[in-house]
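Input record (one chain):
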Amino acid sequence: MTTDPTPSPVTFRTARRDDLARVVELIADDAIAARRTGELGDEHLAAFAAIDADPNNELVVADVGGEVMGVMQLTFVPGISRRGATRLLVEAVRVDSRLRGQGIGRAMMAWAHERGRERGASLAQLTSDKAREDAHRFYRSLGYAQSHEGFKLPL
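The corresponding structure, as predicted from the sequence alone:
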């Protein structure tokens, strides 16, 4: 008999304004993201308000035993390509470093994929910093293919 390694219970819900400090903390919890994210400030409050007001964006938290232990942003992108397909863009996926490797990230992604299907998305996509080799292994284990090169330009 196998047991589920995911701590119980894990529930998913839309992030609330009072979760924002924890969300920023989770996103900034590594050297790569820390310098890009900073500490909770007015720009995070404005971004949260914009995400919360946009029906094509969802900031989702993973709650483990009453505590926010994971976060991800889901964006639904309608498009003309792929025969008018809607894409599920998954961004800012983070699990508390103390709980990594216990199945929470896998549960989060399964939930995101189901949410995408509910919203009519036919493709899930994400980007990951080239330095995040562990994350790349994780996404490949979920069936993601490294199919494109990404490009960014600061504006």
